[in-house]
Write a structure and sequence with these properties.
Elements lengths: L2 H10 L8 E5 L3 H13 L3 E5 L2 H11 L3 E5 L7 H11 L4 E5 L4 H9 L4 E4 L4 H16 L8 E3 L4 E4 L4 E4 L2 E3 L3 H12 L5 E2 H8 L8 H15 L9 E4 L3 E4 L6
Parallel strand pairs: 1-2, 1-3, 3-4, 4-5
Antiparallel strand pairs: 6-7, 7-8, 8-9, 10-12, 11-12
């Protein structure tokens, strides 16, 4: 990136703030440059890496706000790179792949990816997804109550972002916590698939039912004594999900 481009990006950032930074990781230089150019046009300061090892160095040296990571790379593929990024950083990661296999998408999300896009994709959609991921990770959820005691087995402290399940604290990723927040805040009411997708992921994800299904599965594994027969997060077939009604004090 030239000094002129850097000054232009800083000028487009909100007053008093540095431009958002992005790391683009792809061994195909043409693709990396195209993605970088589109992000730069939207005001991002962009770094690039051509391998998993280089990406790990850039994550620790440059501290990017978001990583756009290709899956198919030689030596260390995107999945292994993501696994090692998650050992040192919670930076949001969007994975890119030419394969649209559901197994690949699930694997990436299980390893801690925040989003997944299949090539070819439109530059506008990629920028939109990047901004949506940043909104999810940077916007704190409002706090309706400091603490909600669901029953003897589950209590949630929204202010401290702590969840206790049968007396033990469980770790929730930011997206899992946002999903739980919206479910608990509307306990007893059915929230449609589209409503949850818009509120938790953003308007751009209103048709991505698989994301919702996966994160409901993650929450049930962490909260429910028997995830196959949940008592907290109940599915309404073809409509959405509801959290069990809270007992009135």
């Amino acid at each position: 990136m030239t000094e002129l481009q850097r000054e232009h990006n800083l000028a487009r950032a909100p007053w008093g703030q540095q431009a958002r930074t992005a790391l683009v990781v792809d061994d195909e230089q043409r693709i990396a440059e195209a993605v970088a150019m589109n992000l730069e046009l939207e005001g991002f300061q962009v770094f690039t890496a051509a391998s998993g090892e280089e990406a790990l160095s850039k994550v620790t040296e440059e501290l990017p706000d978001v990583v756009v990571l290709d899956v198919m790379m030689p030596d260390m593929d995107g999945f292994e790179t993501l696994r090692r990024i998650r050992e040192i950083s919670t930076t949001p990661v969007i994975m890119l792949t030419v394969r649209g296999d559901e197994a690949d998408r699930v694997r990436g999300l299980d390893l801690g990816a925040d989003d997944y896009m299949t090539k070819p994709f439109s530059p506008r959609e990629l920028v939109s997804r990047v901004r949506a991921v940043l909104r999810r990770t940077e916007m704190p959820s409002p706090v309706p109550k400091t603490e909600v005691r669901v029953d003897d087995d589950l209590s949630i402290d929204f202010n401290r972002r702590r969840v206790l399940v049968r007396g033990k604290e469980v770790h929730l990723r930011p997206t899992e916590f946002r999903l739980l927040y919206h479910l608990v805040s509307n306990a007893g009411q059915v929230l449609t698939h589209e409503t949850l997708l818009r509120r938790v992921w953003g308007y751009e994800y209103r048709d991505e039912d698989q994301y919702l299904w996966l994160y409901i599965t993650y929450l049930r594994r962490k909260l429910e004594e028997d995830p196959k027969h949940p008592k907290y997060i109940i599915g309404e077939r073809g409509i959405g999900y509801r959290f069990k009604e809270l007992e009135k004090k």
